[in-house]
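Form 12-C: Joint structure prediction
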Amino acid sequence: MTLLVQKFGGTSVGSVERIEQVANRVIESQRAGHQIVVVVSAMSGETNRLLALAKQVDDEPTPRELDVLLSTGEQVTIALLCMAIHKRGFEARSYTGSQVQIVTDDAHTKARIQNIDVERIRTDLNHNRIVVVAGFQGVDGNGNITTLGRGGSDTTAVALAAALQAAECQIYTDVDGVYTTDPRVEPHARRLSHITFEEMLEMASQGSKVLQFRAVEFAGKYDVNLRVLSSFEEGPGTLITYDEEDSMEQPLVSGIAFNRDEAKITLVGIPDTPGMAYKVLGPVGESNIEVDMIIQNVGEDGTTDFTFTVHRNDFKRVLEMMQTLGKELGAQQVTGDDSIVKIALVGVGMRSHAGIASTMFEALAREGINIRMISTSEIKIAIVIDEKYLELAVRTLHAAFGLEQQD
Amino acid sequence: MTLLVQKFGGTSVGSVERIEQVANRVIESQRAGHQIVVVVSAMSGETNRLLALAKQVDDEPTPRELDVLLSTGEQVTIALLCMAIHKRGFEARSYTGSQVQIVTDDAHTKARIQNIDVERIRTDLNHNRIVVVAGFQGVDGNGNITTLGRGGSDTTAVALAAALQAAECQIYTDVDGVYTTDPRVEPHARRLSHITFEEMLEMASQGSKVLQFRAVEFAGKYDVNLRVLSSFEEGPGTLITYDEEDSMEQPLVSGIAFNRDEAKITLVGIPDTPGMAYKVLGPVGESNIEVDMIIQNVGEDGTTDFTFTVHRNDFKRVLEMMQTLGKELGAQQVTGDDSIVKIALVGVGMRSHAGIASTMFEALAREGINIRMISTSEIKIAIVIDEKYLELAVRTLHAAFGLEQQD
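Section 2 - Result
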């Protein structure tokens, strides 16, 4: 008897009818001989409804209370799903994050899972119960309700799969797998039958909406087999695996990720002294704001330009922070731009092949697209361009690397 | 510095605007030099919305899961209220029933409070925080979420006031106090400046909607000063006090309570043997169904008729139960009626005055109202009549005892 963790997102539980479909699917899996732990999100629209209520009260609601509020969304879904399973004559038991004891740190609205107590779940599974756990939420060491941030339900599912040593963690979603790029931007995008954790990590961190970054990170770290598949259609989805040995057969580029939610901030002409990067980014990290790309040009006159990108939501706050900090540090100027996007080519095949970057830059140059920032890793080349070029750039690169033709 | 527990019901927190008003009022009380613990219900309509969702899934939803679902209602309110308090520059901290550790038994949907851990609340109060607790909910010994049944937020407030030895437990509601009877039925009904616990108990148990029965019971038992007052208007409300010594000044009748939600069931011609009442009512109690009036007539031929009333919601279930049980016990017939109502005259003054019952029966007889059942206690005379006579009977009795004229 294998144990499966199945996660259903907001769209998959968006109405009572859909919750009933999830009940059917989950029961089917149990009848096929599996032990089933289900992780669910809030019904689609619910989190936004709650957020709107909070914003009506306060534009910047207290994080602790926002978590108390938002965590009700998943709590509603777990109860309804268990009712639907019971109605069909099967046993189920729901758990909130604090009931399972999904213990997190105390970073409200973006907490990180530290520990999961699976004893209760094991007991239920041994009694043939389907266990239904609220995604996205946990509890800190002092019993305060925390949430993991948007998309956190994926992380909950993977963390549970790791803690329970599940055979597979299946992420049911409204798409039928991971694509070479977003099909809404490039209609010729193709579903990948598999992708490596490393690639998926780069895809997720670059803004591919299918899976949450931390979920993939977790899955890779704890050796969880992760599969993305559709809640609405049958199909194998995309399996996220370890890097295969036979890299000869691997494509150069597996996919193109992009992220519209970027903003960049530059401190122009700050003294080029040791520790400057820390002085600039320390306060940002302490505010729990994630910094994405960081670029520093070597200066000539003892000063340098320091540029980094953050989520667009954090732009205003970070810009204000930098305007104050810039003065203290002696910057000549602080500039910002929140109409930029990031595009990344991702592929483990890049490791053994040169020339990807030049093909990329050439293709973009041909279309007159100016590259504002470049950052690379072993399996990724990321660029920042003006927002208006996003679609053109994605389609150009998709074609340039023949992504629609491979299989 | 005195400690006040203030409870705001669903209508008082029915919108963001009203939640903001509650925030203002609570802060005002704190600024007046009190320590404040606030108990809130779900926003009005929310519990019904959640219940409707559950009924869409299953006509008889699993009680455990229903509690998980319904408890989200108050959780939303505590978060929003704390946000509103923070926005005004004051400190507040929200707690769900399981966070405070309002420990209950495991009778889902109608659990009873067993214990409250107030340590956390004390710490917050000592830090000048306003503590906001979700009403209506608790947690059983195994960490399962429970609810106390409709109106349970009053019970939460009183139980907290008792555990914290609060100076007063203030129940803010949409009426400005306890009335001689429901003003919607008798426009001449008058607000009582005070009422005794015993009277209030009888009023509450007879269906007066102002306060929940168990809340008053709790308040009396643990010596909590209870005050009912309006969330929308200024005013002293009604103080619920201990029986005053000087009973000379007390009115004969303080109020008239009534309850539309009654149904009666009769087992006709069951053997008149010892233990029969237990055999009939034991199974009802085990099903956690509350029985209200019980009447047994002395029989002549070794058999007797046994009648009792239950809440109308439980009628069908209990009737079926009795039809089976009646056969086993040898009843000639089992009959039921769910179009009855109960009316009760309540007053501690009755103790020292005779003739109340005859005045009552005479007034009703004059209007041609047939009395179906009678039950009395030291401070109450309750009758069951046909539903259609409810309004007429209440107005007739209100006038007969001069309730509109006293003060």
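Section 3 - Comments
The CA atoms of residues 200 and 314 of chain A lie 25 Å apart. The mean pLDDT of chain A is 90.
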